[in-house]
Amino acid sequence: MTAKRLITITDVEVVREKGGAALEVPSGAIVTPLARDAARRLGVALAPAGKRERPALVFGNWKANGTLAQARRLAREVALGWCGSGAPLGPRRAALALFPPLVHVAAVSEALAGTSIALGAQDLSEKGGGAFTGGVTAEMLADIGCRYALVGHSERRREFGDADDVVAAKLRRALAAGLEPVLCVGETLEERDAARTHAVLRGQTLAAFDGLSAEQAARVVVAYEPVWAIGTGLTPSLSDAEDAMASIKDHLARKFGDEVAGGARVLYGGSVAAENAARFLALASCDGALVGGASLKAREFLTIAGAPA
Ligand code: PEP
């Protein structure tokens, strides 16, 4: 067995002295708590060495938009652009998933048949099956071909009252059914102005991951979505976004160890568009993008998906 490498505070300081912004952490390496603190203090991102080899996840959340015919057409256009014989749109280093309204999932699934594009649901019930009128269970979603399910999207938290305990229950239901939950976390404008971003991210992340095993935690995708950036055209600075995503990985490292944190997939979401996607996707701690409005236009979504450098 090869000895695990130790990343110490000196490694971080050397990167900083050379003007670097990221330190690659080999798989299995141990980062000392002092090195972790220094990295945060000095603004050095601890990037898992494998990040560049992993495909970026580019997920399209269609929200409550579109007729059945429009959903079919959009899915076909995305499928054709991504897998068809047309001119390549850029490096194919992305894995795509579409999150249509639930009633359109079956039709979109048909349109995506034979492609590598995965399906996701925008929500699920925190209850099991049975006498829960209107509920859609995690098992039903898995049964109709969903691989992913969003949990804790800020619109669910705000408009439907999904509190942290409900989000945690949904996440567990999704895991138990074999889905990969996409946990959305992010601060409101008021929380940001009150310098509470990190506290909010910590609270939402730990509440959702509480009680999970490392194996379960490794199956959760996290999307950092500043609430004030969703659908507004506003975005955080790249350094704020990097800082937020790195802090999420940091919480996972402290709770589940460096292996889980190193393999964690943390996405950025909030007004991602063709002209800014590449900059977010290039961040050391960013493993993909959760795209709302721009995913409703096939060409723009495909351009975003082609963006990973
Ligand atoms: C979202 O709905 O998760 C989202 C990020 O939306 P938008 O890209 O439109 O800001």
Account of the 3D structure:
With 309 residues, the chain is an alpha/beta fold. It is built from 14 helices and 12 strands. It has helices at residues 9-17, 33-42, 68-83, 105-112, 138-143, 154-159, 164-176, 189-193, 197-209, 214-217, 238-256, 258-263, 277-281, 298-305; strands spanning 6-7, 22-25, 30-31, 45-48, 56-61, 94-99, 118-121, 148-151, 180-185, 221-224, 265-269, 288-291. It has an 8-stranded parallel barrel with strand order 5-6-7-8-9-10-11-12, surrounded by 5 helices. Strands 1-3 form a two-stranded parallel sheet. Strands 2-4 form a two-stranded parallel sheet. Helix 1 runs parallel beside helix 2, helix 3 runs parallel beside helix 14 (298-305) and helix 7 crosses helix 9 (197-209). It is globular and about 55 Å long. The chain starts with 5 loop residues before the first strand and ends with a helix. The model has no long low-confidence stretch (mean pLDDT 90). The structure holds phosphoenolpyruvate (PEP). Residues 61, 63, 225, 230-231, 269-272, 290-294 line the site of phosphoenolpyruvate (PEP).
